[in-house]
Every structure is written in C-alpha cells, then in structure tokens.
Amino acid sequence: MKSWQCIVCGFIYDEAKGLPEDGISAGTRWQDIPADWACPDCGVAKADFEMIELAAA
Amino acid sequence: MNTAVAPIVIIGSGLAGYTLARELRKLDRATPLAVVTADEGSFYSKPMLSNALASGKSASDLALKTAVAMAAELNATVHAGTEAQAIDLSERRLRTSDGELGWSKLVLALGADPIRLPLSGDGAAAVLSVNDLRDYARFRTVLEGRKRVAILGAGLIGCEFANDLVLAGHAVEVADIAAQALGRLIPPEAAAGLRAALAAAGVRWHLGKKAVAVDRSGNALVLGFEDGTHIEADIVLSAVGLAPRTALARTAGVEVRRGIVVDRFLRSSDPDVYALGDCAEVEGQVLPFVMPIMHAARALASTLSGSDKALIYPPMPVVVKTPALPTVVCPPAPGAAGAWQIESEAGGTLARYVDAAGRLLGFALTGSATAHKNRLVKELQAA
C-alpha cells in the first residue's frame, strides 16, 4: 500500500485507508481510482495529479 | 504575425492560465495556443506558498515544471517574462513588452494584486506580501536569520502563514482590525478555537486593532496601531486580501466591476474575450480559491473548443491549512439569509449556516469536526 500526495494542494491519498466517504473503499490502489475522480480538497483532476509517491509499506 | 489562424492567447501562467491550457489540450491538440506571462512561466503550487516553509521547501522546490517543459507538454508557445500591455479589441491584437501578437480568442487569467494597507512611516515600503513564486523566493531570502514576523491580516492566508512560520521556529504576531480570525468565513465560536490553538502553538494575537504605521528602528520594524500601542518585528508580512487585476481589461473597454465581469460561460462584454481565476467576477462573485478555478477551467475549455458549457459551481469547501487546528469552510453565497448553528464537540466545532426552514446553506468545521465535511457537502448538494 502506498500514499500519494496532490502536488497542487498537498492532499494525501492513503491507499490503505481509501476514501470510504467518497465511495473509494480502503485498500483501493491509485491506478484503480476512476479517471474522472478529482482531489477532494482542490478539485485537480486525477490525470493532472502527478502524484508524488510518499512511501512504500 | 501573418499565420492563417491566430492563436488562442491566454494571459497569465498561474493555476488559472495553465489549468485552462491543460484542460483545453485534453479536448483540442491542434488549435494554436499561446501563453503570455510576466512571470518566468514555471508551473507551481500556489496553495503551498503559505505552508511550504515548515516543510523546508524552497521556491525552486515549488516550481514543478519550467516554462519550456510546459510549452512542450501543452504544445503551446509560452512567452515568459513578457508583460501584456494593451488589448486592441477591434484588431484582435495584444501589445506586449516583446512585440505584438494576434489572437482569435483571448483569455484573461491575470490573477490579483495583494491589497496594501495605507501605512505611514519609513518602514512601510519594507512590508512584504507573498502572492506568487517570485514573492515567495524573496520572502525566504528576507527570512534568513530573522526571527520575528508580524503578520497583517487574520484571514485565511494570514492564519496559514502564521501557523507555517511558528512551525518553522519563528516568533509570530498576527494583527487584524477584525475582532476574530477568519472573520468573513466562520462564526466567532469557531474562530475562538482557532485563535486558542494557534496561540498554544506560539502565535500572539492583536485583534480589533488597526495598523497605521511601520517605522524603522535600527534593523527592526515597529508596527504601530491607532490606539498608540506597537509591536516590534524583523519582518512585516501583509495578507489583508486581494484585488482582482482589472486595469488591462478596463483600459481596453472590457466591462469591469470588482473583477472582470463575465457570465456563466466566462465570457466578458466582448464575445471573444474571456476571464477566469482571481481576476474574474463570475455572475457577481469573485472566488479567489483553487477549486473554483478547476471548475471554471473545465467549463471554459469546453466552450473554447466549440461546445458551450455553462459554469455551475458545486459546493466548494475550502481547506484552511492550519495544522494547529485543521479548518474547513464552505461559506454561504453572498447575501444568503440565515444564521449559524453551533455544535461544539471535544476537539472541534461544527457550525452550520441554515435558513429559516433549517436548510443548510454553508458550514465551517474545525478540528475533529472536519470529519463531517463530506456528509455536509452531500447535504448541500441535496439542498
């Protein structure tokens, strides 16, 4: 499981936790998140996230 | 320029300008595109300017891509270091510090200027503001070896800088003429919690006080208030608000009020001139936040590529990056009639702004109550 950070606003997506309240269950890998998903904090599109891989566990 | 098709020209390389360019290129790879920018044209994260210090990020760390890389990615010409000087609406031309270029459609993504308080004193010119990457680079240079920072403005940016600076080991004082922090965004009960949390982190508050002067005293600056009191600092940072950049549009004859006036299609009084981001007033609203820019860029990209798309804002919560007490605000629309309902819980405040029928119009959340964000956004969507 990895964590990814939005380069625009700093939002962190943790694959282990997912975003259950956003309909993304715990354990969802970044590549499995729908393409039309956007950062919940700043609205940046997934395609433009250029997420930074924070750590591998 | 004698090319058959004049390009779409975007003025500005901030989040608004570059996000629009990216969204446009998702729909249209072919139409010539040019970006004219007075900056160096690198792509950077604007929201991080007010929380990059404690994490040790320099200005060059924040510059994610150079102008050259952006030009290649966008299949666009990026005129960096080029000032837009005058728009000729009848000839469809733009005069710049580096010559003229023609345009088929013109997009104003000019941003906003930090508002400067009218301060007297021989230190007033030394007051800094941080609104772009160049400002941030200068800020970091000035901070070197200086400990005490006085911040003018207890709004969103002022609070974020205050938190970032105390985390980085600075002695921080925050002054505002308002009686509370985030005065325009949250009710007093929630603001009190934020004030206490930042105070516990080391911030000293001077609320309800009007700053009138900045004077030099040796290497230090003395910030004077109307009531005769003063505080001493090494740096004074101003974060009292933003004024949309409208002069270029106004001079050209494009309608301007507080911002450049545009409709739901981001179209100005000239049908081929558009505006988005901090310079734009969209149906009466100026919203200088990131999420409105993202929505505006997607709608405008569609319109520019031939499929008119009206901008409709969903509920857009704004995250205030104050780790001392995380805060999320979703302000009610201007003029919305209602009242705050406050629920305090251990470690946070949940404030709902509701109308007479109990319908949710906006909210403010601090601390542990930020966990309710998604539920409240859904409630707003349903309302």
List keywords for this structure.
heterodimer, A: about 55 residues, mainly beta, 3-stranded antiparallel beta sheet, about 20% strand, B: about 375 residues, alpha/beta, 5-stranded antiparallel beta sheet
Write a compact overview of the structure shown.
The complex is a heterodimer of chains A (57) and B (383). Chain A is an all-beta fold and 57 residues long. Helix content of chain A is 0%, strand content 21%.
Task: Describe what you observe in this structure.
The complex is a heterodimer of chains A (57) and B (383). Chain A is mainly beta. Chain A is 0% helix and 21% strand. Chain A contains no helices and three strands. Chain A has strands at residues 2-5, 12-14, 52-56. A three-stranded antiparallel β-sheet of chain A has the order 2-1-3, with no helix packed on it. The model of chain A has no long low-confidence stretch (mean pLDDT 83). Chain B is α/β, with parallel strands linked by helices and 383 residues long. Chain B has helices at residues 15-27, 59-62, 67-74, 133-143, 156-167, 188-200, 247-252, 290-304, 373-382, and strands at residues 8-11, 33-36, 43-44, 63-65, 77-79, 84-88, 93-96, 99-102, 105-108, 112-114, 148-152, 171-176, 204-207, 211-217, 220-225, 230-233, 235-238, 242-244, 260-262, 273-275, 280-282, 318-320, 327-330, 339-345, 348-354, 360-367. Chain B has a five-stranded parallel β-sheet. In chain B, α1 (15-27) packs parallel to α8 (290-304). The longest helix of chain B is centred in the last third of the chain and has 15 residues, at 290-304. Chain B is globular, with a radius of gyration of 22 Å. In chain B, 46% of the residues are buried. The A-B interface holds A 7-11, 21-22, 38, 40-45, 47-48, 50 and B 15, 19, 22-23, 26, 45-48, 51, 64, 290-291, 293-295, 298, 316, 319, 321, 374-375.
